[in-house]
Give the backbone structure.
Amino acid sequence: MLNTHAEIRANIKRIGNEEFYTKFTEFTKAFLESEQNVTYLTGDCVNPTRTAYESLLKCKKYVDDP
């Protein structure tokens, strides 16, 4: 997700979606609050980091995305 965020920020031809930036911030905050627990996608567990991650995956990355 860090690479995706960096690609969107670096893109000079398209405008990043503010919702994506907001959800990215929510995801990184949840990840840091979990003490950087990397198992947030393991199994069927539900936790704030996974919820934020899945929400981030569903939102438009660029303003002009369909």
Notes: Residues 18-33 form the longest helix (16 residues).
